[in-house]
Amino acid sequence: MNPRHHRCLERLLVASLLVLSVHPVSSQLYRFGKNKVQYDEFLWQRMETPHFDIYFYEEEAELASYGAQMAEEGYELVERHLAHTVRRRIPLIIYSSHVYFEQTNIIPGMLPEGVAGFTEFLKGRVALPLSGSYPEFERVLHHELVHVFMSDRIRRVLRDRGVTDLWMGPLWFSEGIAEYISGDWSSYGDMILRDAMFSGRLVPVSQMHRIYGSFQMYKEGESICHYLGRHYGKDIFARLLGNWWRGESFKEVFRVTTGDELAELNKQWLYGLRKRYLPDIQSADPPSQMARALTTSGYNLKPALFIPTEVRANTGNAKRLEVIFFRNDQGYTYIARQPLHGAAAPTVVVKGEKAPEFESLHPLETSLAVHPDGALLAFAAKRNGRDHLVLWDLQEGEEVRRLTFPELVAISSPTWSPDGRSLALAGARQGGSTDLFLLSLADDELRSLTDDLFHDRDPAWHPTGRKLVFSSDRTSDYGRRGHYNLSVLDVDGGGMTQLTNGEHEDTQPAWSPDGSWVAFASDRERMYDLYSVAVPADSSAAVATDYVHRLTRTLTGVFDPVWVPGDNSVLFTGFEAGRFHLYHMPVNVDSLRAAEASVRAEIAEVAASSADSSQLALMEGWSLTSFTGPGDITRRNYKREFSLDVAQSQISQDPIFGTSGGVQVGLSDVLGNQQYYFVLSHISGSNTGFFDGLNLAFGRVHLARQLNVGWGLFHLNDRFTSTFGRFVREKRTGGWAEFSYPFSRNDRLETRVTVRHADIDRQFEGRELRSWLLSNHIAYTHDNSLWIPTGPMEGTRYSLGAGQTVDFKSSRPFHMTFFGDYRHYFRISGRTSFAVRYMALHSRGDVPEFFSLGGSWTLRGYGWRSIWGRNLVLANHEYRYPLLDRIVVAFPFGNIDLSAFRGALFVDVGNAWNDSFGDWRGSCGTGFRLALGGVFVIRLDASRRTDFKSIANQTRWDFFFGWDY
Amino acid sequence: MGLLTVRRARSLLVLLFAVGLLTSCGSGVLYAPAGGHATLWLQENGSAQAESHRADGPEPPLRLLWSQSVSDPPLAGPRFAGSLLLITTKGSTIYSLDVATGHRLGKKANDDPLCAPTAVAGRESDLLLLSQVGKHAAILGLDRRTGNHRWKWEASVCQPLVTRGDTLYAVVEGGQLVAIDVYNGELIWQSDFDPAPKLLSPASVTAEKVYRADGTDIVALQRSDGQSVWRKAVGGRVRTRLAVDGDLHQLFAVTGNGRVLALDADAGDSLWSQTIDGLPASALSLTDSLVVVTSSNRTVYAFHRDYGDVVWRYNTGGVLTASASSTAATVFVGSGDGTLYALAADSGDLQWKYDLDAPALTNIALEEDMLALTTEAGTVYLFQQDRHVYDR
User: Fold this and answer.
1) What is the C-alpha separation between B378 and A214, in angstroms, rounded?
2) In the predicted model, what is the mean pLDDT of residues A104-120?
3) Who among B72, B173, B279 is closest to A238 (CB)?
4) How far apart are CA A618 and CA B283, in angstroms?
5) Is the separation of the CB atoms in A378 and A416 below 8 Å?
6) Distance (Å, rounded) from C-alpha B306 to C-alpha B285?
7) What ipTM describes this predicted complex?
8) Could you give the CA distance from residue B378 to residue B73 in angstroms, rounded to a whole number?
9) Inter-chain contact B279–A246, Cβ cutoff 8 Å?
10) Quick check: A511 and A463 in contact, CB under 8 A?
């Protein structure tokens, strides 16, 4: 997990327990990092089925009941495929929305919107949200169960054979097998692999680390598993797992199981892909070959057309149409606009994902809509744990209104009615189901248009404003298997008719300007293409099931069709070379008209011959089965049961300090909301007896609410390296309490109170201090930085605060400390940035704190912590630029692949002092950073000191590990 | 009652004496002279003829005679060897238990990991055949009396070892089928295939032929010299050990994709085929009229041997990875749900069941009126037909 994402209090606690006695407390006061905020509190319950303990909250009781049935069915499915039984009970935690899921404490890291579920291997917990589609929920659940079974099988095989080195195999295999078992091969898989092949980006098995964790890796892994199943039989996976003990790598296990080398598998798999996909180019083209590209960099999708108000007022010229869309070319998603015609570059409309007001814009889930008069943009944005509907003035460039709805957790695809008085949108209820809603802007009344378990999305208004076309999995025959078709809803009457029907994914419908056609994206030919379907004027008798006309024949995939008014053309999103771009393509109207005439005749014939008009009937839909057995279902309130997160011990021998030993234990409940930590150690070399040599620390954190609370007790006695690198012997006994309140993902206020009895032997000063000390500290921290593997690239981080320690028996001020640390990262280009850091620290009192400068992380060119003082100022300026994207170092035993080799040019200025400032100290130089496996960074800095008149001749080299500031 | 007590006491004394005598010879007792019981035993996945069937085997209800822990999960099902029950574990240790009491009489740990189920061979069943893999991969011929090595044949073998008469038939990991003299470990003949078969399955032996799978083919070889007799493409890689009835000239197999095949054992002609759901267990078993196939989808399938019709099917509560074992009237099967099931052979109806302490994933051994199996918790269970319990 990326270390920049972590919980504020949790990591603070662990760190505190370990360093409580090492450093002055001020250095613990602030740490950067984004916050995981508990916006919602739930009353959790537990349901027991034969194999699962299912955790859910009351609002999603129905989902939990369906989930229980799906889980038991999935258990049998995976058991059948892997011929293995998991004997332990599997904890399954269900969330009714991704918004709630993102707040989980089961794992400490942030959960991106792309994560559909996860399996946590320490306690074997599975957690997943409902994203609107029950069939998709079921598929993800089965996917995660494959991980549970696979992990259990491997552990058992290795344990039974006495192998203690647990290894889980390559990620492409574990994700590939999970995809393979949990569902059928999808058109998305074809799209990804076909595109990778034609753009030269297909990655062989031996280099799968290059696409580690990406969607392409998932699909390549799944494709390989399909090949394995076809070539070796569907029992090959059970065989491979059963032989796990016979090798120390997947390569060896594969060889002893199949008799083949992995290289041979790679060769045959790639050959099979070429045979399958290469012929496609004879009949299909990539988007760039069949349409004009409107964008050429970044990711661009979900276009909407509008005529700006100012243009409309002046000319009404359709040629002044503008496109508004989601764009990401710098690491953040934002809303951009540009003219449809011409070569003007996109301009920013709304900056997303930087400010708490637009924490997420959901670019993959939702679309944009501009008011018919071209003045207002409607879009969904996440803020404080739920989606808001935002109305944005395009001319003024400011937010006009922000609407939230208590019954809706998530919002997607708002669309203006033709009269501009209302908006239709898809909304996810607290219980998880996603339905269509109509919002009247006159009185902000939200009316439910559908209310069932089906996933209704992508509503689009007919030009008359009387009906909506939308995509849904409600089709009787196909919806339960996760397929989407189009339906038409009479907004006033409520009647619903089915427009398309089949085993495909018909999505993102858009009415033609005259309302006689609906264009949509579909994978009905195993490629995502644009189609249009004719819709007779009388919608009540207007179902032309599958009378569709194919508009594109794309090699990769196209989505988001938008009719261009008066231009006989469509605008769409195309996928090519792993990127999404906007394209503009003319439509052959003659062909469309001919098809329309043929279709209308056919419709009339069908309507005449079909007395019962069965195709016109409202779809009956499908239903889900709640879990009913076997056996009694036990359902009870959630009761915290703690189990081990971490336990480790260590014994060390030091020539100076003697023998020391210790244990650390971490416990938490199933939901991860309550956590305990224990640290116990002993310094045998202590000459003050057994109890004096004992170090104990205990802490507890409550993370279930937005206000995180922690408290703990400690008794610590040891010698520590302190100010000026000298030893301080201190015995501390006391307790602490800490409160952390995250306002949003980016901002938090935290405070800490510590009461301790300190017995300090400051040998270097020749004095001892014994007193009861009370410390109070408070800090405000902001962090919205965007990271690359070596450190922050864009955004701002700062922390401001103060701390005070007093002898509360005598009211003698021990010390008072103020601090401020501000960092800003200016994006210069896509891959270069200029970083600045300004830091100031000041401590006063009878026993002030001392701060240090020098070394790779502060003032380069000076020795590590070589400058001390109770005052400190520091300014860093650094230009960061790329050098090499990848370095592969070849060894006889294999290659080491290093990524993100970057350079830096820097100037540092600072000083630390007590009473007299002295002179500024400065340095300048260059540095190199190399990211290793995404877990840490190697830094090498070459610097020379400067007195700001000349630069010293001596170069100081600093080698260190750690991210850029 | 008094007579019974006297009988029991006498039996106990004899047993104690025998145990003392045996254990005094060393701690690794893996051999006991044949007693009054028949000395036939079922080999892993059935006998050399691949029959997991004993017409005179126990009929339900059964009574638990004893249970004993061997700590490790089993590598394969237990083996009756005269008055001993041999258990090979995944920890590469062989235990010998007294059939009458369950007392552990011997234990032999192998330094290298064992891969194939242990086999017993020799005219007096005095040979123990082990197959170890790793750096010192070899088939080992051990004297069961002394535990000493008699011979060693270097090869990596993980498919069950099959013996018939004085010959051992083994499929080595390079794909070759070898016939080895069980007394001296000398190679009698070797059958190579080009290209070498992948995803191996064990051989099956009749009086005249040796059968094995070769990729998606089934091959019949002369037992005397390994020369090919016939080859038949079956359209899928055979996962199970072939079940051959030499008398009725029938051969049965299941592919990894779940196709159940019946062939003419003499010429290789297809007789019928069926499909099952899930992954088949490593072997199938034959009764007089049925082919019984167990599957990972928790189901026991019984097909008519001659016509392939599904005679019955039975759903257990857990995954099935071991083949069924049958008597004249009953099909026994151990399940991943930790239950031993006894099903009526003619109807598939549940006759009796017993809750075990853990899943039973290896084969069941049958011996006259006894049934033995080992669970994944390393517990060995010995059941006896109820009517004989008080007669012993």
Assistant:
1) 42
2) 91
3) B279
4) 52
5) yes
6) 14
7) 0.87
8) 4
9) no
10) yes
Strands A90-95 and A125-129: parallel
Q: Establish, for the pair of chains A and B, how many residue pairs have beta carbons separated by less than 8 Å.
A: 79
CB A151 within 8 A of CB A169: no
Percent of chain B past pLDDT 90, that is, above it, reads 62
According to DSSP, the residues that pair with A325 across neighbouring strands are A336
Structure-model confidence comparison of residues B71 and A659, the more confident one: B71
Task: Tell me: pLDDT of B11 over 60.
Answer: no
Rounded to the nearest angstrom, the minimum Cα separation between A224 and chain B is 17
Structure tokens given for B169: 């038939």
Q: How many of the other CB atoms lie within 10 Å of CB of A906?
A: 20
Nearest to B169 by CA among B195, B142, B131, B134: B131
Amino acid at A131: S
Residue B337: list chain A partners with CB under 8 A.
85
Mutate to test the interface with A, among B199, B200, B261 (most CBs of A within 10 A): B199
The full DSSP string for A123-185 is: TTEEEEE--S-HHHHHHHHHHHHHHHHHHHHHHHHHHHTT--------HHHHHHHHHHHHS--
Q: Does the pLDDT at position A6 exceed 50?
A: no
- Check if B117 contacts A (Cβ < 8 Å): no
User: Which residue in B90, B256, B297 is closest to A233 by CB distance?
Assistant: B256
- pLDDT, tens digit (0-9, with 9 covering 90-100), for A390-435: 999 999 999 999 999 999 999 999 999 999 999 999 999 999 999 9
Identify the DSSP state of A625.
P
Contact between A552 and A536 (Cβ < 8 Å): no
Nearest CA in chain B to A254: B199
pLDDT at A646: 80
Q: What is the pLDDT of residues A883-911, one digit of tens each?
A: 988 777 777 766 677 778 899 999 999 99
Q: Which residue of A has its CA nearest to B156?
A: A256
pLDDT band at A724 (very low <50, low <70, confident <90, very high): low
Residue B185 forms beta bridges with which residues? none
A747 Cβ contact list (under 8 Å, min separation 6): A35, A356, A780, A781, A782
Candidate from B113, B199, B296 with C-beta closest to A161: B113
| pTM of this structure | 0.90
Alpha helices in A233-372 (DSSP H): 236-242, 250-258, 262-277, 287-290, 309-314
pLDDT tens digits for range A752-784:
999 999 887 765 566 667 888 899 999 999 999
Of the CA atoms within 13 Å of residue B195, those in its CB half-sphere come to 6
Write out chain A residues lying below 8 Å of B115, CB-based: 246
